[in-house]
Design goal:
The protein is of the alpha/beta class. The protein is built from nine helices and seven strands. The protein folds into two domains: 235 residues, NAD(P)-binding Rossmann-like Domain (Rossmann fold); 32 residues, no CATH class. Helix 3 runs parallel beside helix 4 and helix 4 runs parallel beside helix 5. The longest helix is centred in the middle third of the chain and has 28 residues. The structure holds nicotinamide-adenine-dinucleotide.
């Protein structure tokens, strides 16, 4: 698929040294944008920026720290001669701790990075964007902000806050030519999720079974939707929180969503009239017993 054109655009991506943020920065760069990659880890951000090309830069700031955010916005605006695109991606996990055992410090820090960070960086960047005639902000939500996920109280509340901030700011800044949207990913194969799987707090097999598409996302699949929202091709899209979750939040069946025990497969076992096309579009051949495989 051709990348949406971002030629001549400039972008700031927070938390861009790793995972989804890095995939977004790379995808925006591939579309033609010059990108400032923010992270708390400056060395990693520098390495990430260098890996996508010499015209991109790294800027250190903690998105939850107002003074650091204001300096970052000013430095990025000066270096790139203005900002057209902001992606509020920086994020932290909450440790997936049962609510009764969760500390106030972790709860507050989780909200500070996701909610305060999105608020502060947007606020710092929008006046300059408006002076240029407008721009596009894309926030990172999550399925955890859409459906209740036990033991993820802090993270879920933070992502629900990001989703609502997306709608509020879209309405507030539309008159300045600034669109504000969010993506709400399901489980994505990044170090954040790998850490939860490694510590036994997430079960990869159960995630796949609970996801209609039967797998986790690659960071590039989130980046593709962010690049579309950032581009002029999404010129009439604002205030949207778009699920990029393999069907996770849409699924409400009383069974696994994919695989051996999915509703489809169980129904298929008692229904020989399956005319679902095969992967190449042709009708599925009947098995020797007359059933469709
Ligand atoms: N991985 C998933 O399955 C998933 C699903 C839904 C949403 N998300 C969201 O996507 C975003 C990226 O997640 P990821 O999985 O790529 O995580 P990651 O841990 O791989 O990368 C996050 C990056 O943000 C940086 N960062 C953390 N706190 C920061 C701060 N205060 N200021 C600046 N940078 C900071 C980290 O150093 C890191 O480079 C997050 O907002 C996350 O909540 C992730």
């Amino acid at each position: 698929m051709a990348h949406p054109t971002l030629n001549g655009k400039t972008a700031l991506v927070t938390g861009a040294a790793n995972g989804i943020g890095f995939a977004i920065a790379r995808r925006l760069a591939e579309g033609g944008a010059r990108v400032a990659l923010n992270d708390v880890d400056l060395d990693a951000a520098r390495a990430a920026a260098a890996s996508i090309g010499p015209q991109h830069l790294a800027i250190r700031a903690d998105v939850a720290n107002e003074a650091e955010v204001e300096r970052m916005a000013s430095d990025a605006t000066t270096a790139l001669e203005g900002l057209d695109i902001l992606v509020n991606n920086a994020g932290v996990g909450d440790g997936a701790v049962p609510t009764l055992a969760q500390s106030l410090a972790v709860f507050e820090r989780t909200l500070a990075v996701h909610v305060n960070g999105t608020f502060l960086v947007s606020k710092a960047v929008v006046p300059g964007m408006a002076r240029r005639g407008g721009g596009s902000i894309v926030n990172l939500g999550s399925i955890a902000g859409q459906v209740g996920v036990p033991v993820r109280t802090a993270y879920s509340v933070a992502k629900a806050g990001v989703a609502m901030m997306t709608r509020v700011l879209a309405c507030e800044w539309a008159g300045r030519g600034i669109r504000v949207n969010a993506v709400a990913p399901g489980y994505v194969e990044t170090r954040l999720v790998a850490g939860l799987i490694a510590s036994g707090k997430l079960d990869a097999t159960r995630i796949r079974a609970r996801t209609p598409l039967g797998r986790m996302a690659a960071p590039e699949e989130i980046a593709a939707v962010v690049a579309f929202l950032a581009s002029d091709e999404a010129s009439y899209v604002t205030g949207a929180v778009i699920p990029v979750d393999g069907g996770y939040a849409a699924f409400g069946g009383p069974c696994d969503a994919s695989g051996e025990f999915s509703a489809y497969d169980r129904a298929k076992a008692s229904d020989s009239s399956d005319s679902r096309p095969s992967a190449d579009g042709a009708p599925r051949p009947l098995a020797p017993d007359g059933q469709r495989p």
